[in-house]
Amino acid sequence: MPPRRGARRGGGRGGRGASRGQLEAQPAAPAVDPNAPVTQADLAAMEQRYQDMLQATLAPFLAAQQNQAALVQAQAVVPPAPEEAQPVPIQLSAEAKHLRDFRKYNPKTFDGSMDNPTKAQMWLTSIETIFRYMKCPEDQKVQCEVFFLEDRGIAWWETAERMLGGDVSKITWEQFKENFYAKFFSANVKHAKLQKFLNLEQGDMTVEQYDAEFDMLSRFAPDVVRDETARTEKFVRGLRLDLQGIVRALRPATHADALRIALDLSLHERADPSKAAGRGSAVGQKRKVETQPDVIPQRTLRSGGVFQRHRRELTAAGRTLRELPACTTCGRVHGGRCLAGSGVCFRCRQPGHTADMCPRKPFETTPPQPSAFQQGRVFATTRQEAERAGTVVTGTLPILGHYAFVLFDSRSSHSFISSVFVQHVDLEVEPLGSVLSVSTPSGEVLLSKEKIKAYRVEIANHMLDVTLLVLDMQDFDVILGMDWLSANHANIDCFGKEVVFNPPSGASFKFRGAGMVLDIKEPEVSLSSEPVVREYPDVFPDELPGLLPPREVDFAIELEPGTAPISRAPYRMAPAELKELKVQLQELLDKGFIRPSVSPWGAPVLFMKKKDGSMGLCIDYRELNKVTVKNRYPLPRIDDLFDQLQGATVFSKIDLRSDYHQLRIRDGDIPKTAFRSRYGHYEFVVMSFGLTNAPTVFMDLMNRVFKDFLDSFVIVLIDDILIYSKTEAEHEEHLHQVLETIRANKLYAKFSKCEFWLRKVTFLGHVVSSEGVSVDPTKIEAVTNWPRPSTVSEIRSFLGLVGYYRRFVEDFSRIASPLTQLTRKGTPFVWSPACESSFQELKQKLVTAPVLTVPDGSGNFVIYSDASKKGLGCVLMQQGKVVAYASRQLKIHEQNYPTHDLELAAVVFALKIWRHYLYGEKIQIYTDHKSLKYFFTQKELNMRQRRWLELVKDYDCEILYHPGKANVVADALSRKVAHSAALITKQTPLLRDFERAEIAVSVSEVTSQLAQLSVQPTLRQKIIASQLNDPYLVEKRCMVETGQGEDFSISSDDGLMFEGRLCVPEDSAVKTELLTEAHSSPFTMHPGSTKMY
Fold it and tell me: How far is the C-alpha of 430 from the C-alpha of 193, rounded, in Å?
């Protein structure tokens, strides 16, 4: 084998045939046992054969060179002086040179073993590293590399070379790598390595071992650790909890910094093992940092201390602290009477001070250890967290002559002051004896290293001492925690939002949170203070300058054929209304908006109250509108407008002044607008409010004016203009373009109704921000204050308002069903308990409505659909975020559908309602009805299914099966009688499921409550990954790959299947989790013995 291998690869290009011929002339090498050990003599023989082969290959070149040299010498006119003969240097071919250079780097050989896929991958990586350093050409890489294959590696290469054409000089390096990885480092192995990295935790490993494993496995997850920040976060997340909290608190910028901190902490533990003794095993540890009071002692405990005295008493009694039950008051394990909340010193048991300030405290000769950490906790550090909590009170208190925003929090272990407030007031700080590690609700750990002493807080003319620890906080200046509340005998009344103080000596007093909050009004914004906008004062006049010039679009009134003029008598008015009518008619005449008329048409006049209390003139054009041909110019859909806002972070809103009066009426149609009043007969020259086609015609004008900007950075709905941009610099340019366009078209805006440079804007009843689209809080307030309907009309009004936001409400149709039934003809109005429940639940749903994402144009939509005998429900998602909910009740004939058709109806309903998103995009549709997977290949279809098949074929969709448990959102929309709030009654089982599924809630700046949780099951991926560790299943997988597996197959997600079912490996952990899913979860039940395989 070795001579054949060397001959085949040594010749390279051109010399391959010659070397093969010479090889055939040599005697055949004796057979060698491949399992025999290789000796030094064998290596020397192999080297000699290689040299002989090289000389034989180069012989023709050397002979030609000598002949050429002799010819030149014979043709010379003057014979050269006799000189000593020089040896002719050997001229190597390019292939030989590259091989020689490659060998200088001493590359390792690969024997083709499949026992260690990582070894094969690392070998190929080392070969590529050598190629990079020596700058080896692409066409020489394969010829160099195959020299270093051995044993089974050579056998594999001979087959692969034949499959790739048989000419090694034409095989590219990428082809070689693709075949090599397919054989020795398959996608299954790569996926298993990725899964191992994703699940990597330190556990019982040392920090050095964990870091080595992290480096080894991170090579297989480039997307997970795509940058230094992600790499650092993943490394810290896998550390033991006791190390993780401190490393996070120090905020390492790089992986190297995090490793250095973790190594320092672990070395400190090794130097003093007693500090880690009480910590226990970190594997599977789920407790909070603050529940480990003995992680690191605060100071050196003296023999005379209370703790040491109790420990000696327990030791004498043969018991330890760990054997005692936890205290029912403080939750900790200690001996003797509990002193928590008593306000006495833990050292001398006297009131009036704490243990760290105790006068009997012995002098400590040992300096405090700088690495010692105390444990603390704070319940809320932002206003959003405080508002969501019912156990805190906020208010404003004078501290050192400055008003501070204060949070009273009984669940905060200490009292804190914001570092920003300290700098603002210029307070003097002093270092803490030991660093305090403070854990927050979001899981973040903050460090407090300084404190402020001997300051007082004034409450109801009482001066109370307070010691504040400096902490980086966002929204609060001061947090008064349990240490201060207990010392001052304070109780928090959560319902009344007040703090009551009951001092042992003296009268009680209280602090009212609501009464102390300062209501600071924002200063009024002026035109001159707005960047960019101040350059266009002529666009924002106080009044319209008068009759505006004709435009590209005029308002026309087309009547139905044969319509005669209509005139109605004027309405009677009160004296105050007549006085206001006279004033407004004169203003309209002065501006040229109306003129005296002799038209046969005439509509009555009336007044309507405006929001500001003034009276607005209205013309009752109802009779004219009845005979007017309706203009079908389309108004944009509200949800279509919001779909344009993906990625926008800066917004401006412009509202036109008296918008309809900025558009003139076509001359021939002016008489039709005539109206009759006490003071004469007039007609409008400009478009008036109340005309049936006014919105669509004005929409036509706005589309023409802003046609170059629509769907780029401007959206328009009649007179509302929203400008959106991704950056402030971009927004400045967009504002210039829009305001220039408004100026050029002689349109005018009302500055008091405009808003500029906003991060969050209210538009068309929604709140738009970079986070997405949410419900306008003012509309929610109107819904929550809505009185109980007493008539069918009031129910329709209520359903009309909440229905406007139905895309935010999951299961809307089911919840509203009792109310909608009351609006049907022939149904008596009976307000039942079901109606009251529906009424209140709709209110609550809007209060907790989530922020919906805006589609980003990348496609890849996912639909979850479900159906029941109550209705159809579906959820549209993109990149794991909810875009919209949709649901409806079943029609009467649909209630007779079989289950298969009903589930298919839910799919068709989703495709129809979201066609504007889905048409032309790749869609995945998940349903819990398994037979729908085969809808496209089903041989027999009824007429209804055939009709629906034609509709579904218009979409690029794939119907996939999703178990009912995983399809919880759509299932809730169509089936569940109890909404998500009902899960609160199952706190313990639900929390157990959350822990088992490793679900965490991430706290961000979004202030809305959590209303929907998307759960992605991982059990299937765990089973597939564990299949690679089962020898029997690995053998069956190999048989499938070679075409020998009879009843086995491999699924699209690389799982080994037996007759369509996923194979469960011999793995106790996987089997336990599988059985737990089937038996212990409140969301599923045992399917029966016939379904358990």
Answer: 50
328-359 tens-digit pLDDT? 565 554 545 565 555 566 555 556 555 555 55
C-beta separation of 1026 from 1070 below 8 A: yes
Domain boundaries, the chain: 94-185, 192-266, 374-512, 533-770, 774-981, 1018-1079
Topology given in CATH for the domain delimited by 533-770? HIV Type 1 Reverse Transcriptase; Chain A, domain 1 (3.10.10)
Least confident residue range of 299-308, 686-695, 702-711: 299-308
pLDDT bin (cut points 50, 70, 90) of residue 499 is confident
Question: Contact 1073/1022 with Cβ under 8 angstroms?
Answer: yes
What would the mean pLDDT of 892-897 be, rounded to a whole number? 85
AA letter at 781: E
Fold classification of 774-981 (topology level): Nucleotidyltransferase; domain 5 (3.30.420)
- Name the β-bridge partners of 354: none
652-689: pLDDT as tens digits = 999 888 878 888 999 999 999 999 998 899 999 998 88
Q: How far apart are CA 867 and CA 785, in angstroms?
A: 33
- Give the other-Cβ count within 10 Å of 701's Cβ: 22
Q: Are 669 and 557 in contact (CB under 8 A)?
A: yes
Q: How far apart are CA 597 and CA 981, in angstroms?
A: 63
Report whether 469 contacts 450 (CB < 8 A).
yes
C-alpha span between 456 and 412 (Å, rounded): 19
Give the tens place of pLDDT for each residue, 247-287.
877 778 888 888 888 888 777 666 555 444 444 433 333 33
> How many H helices and E strands in the chain?
36, 31
Residue 314 tokens read as: 């327990």
For the ranges 50-64, 68-82, 652-666, the maximum mean pLDDT occurs at 652-666
The CB-side HSE value for 47 (13 A sphere, CA atoms) comes to: 7
| Core vs surface per residue 392-407: b (16+ CB within 10 A) or e | bbbbbbebeeeebbbb
Which pair of tokens denotes residue 400? 């050192």
Question: Cα 109–112–117 angle (5° rounding)?
Answer: 100
Q: Interior CA angle at 230 toward 225 and 232, to 5°?
A: 105
Residue 723 β-bridge partners: 652, 714
**Distance in angstroms (rounded) separating the CA atoms of residues 858 and 917:** 11
State the fold for domain 374-512. Answer: Cathepsin D, subunit A; domain 1 (2.40.70)
Instruction: Express each pLDDT in 445-484 by its tens digit.
Output: 677 778 886 677 778 778 888 888 888 776 678 888 888 8
The structure tokens listed for 777 are 């809080």
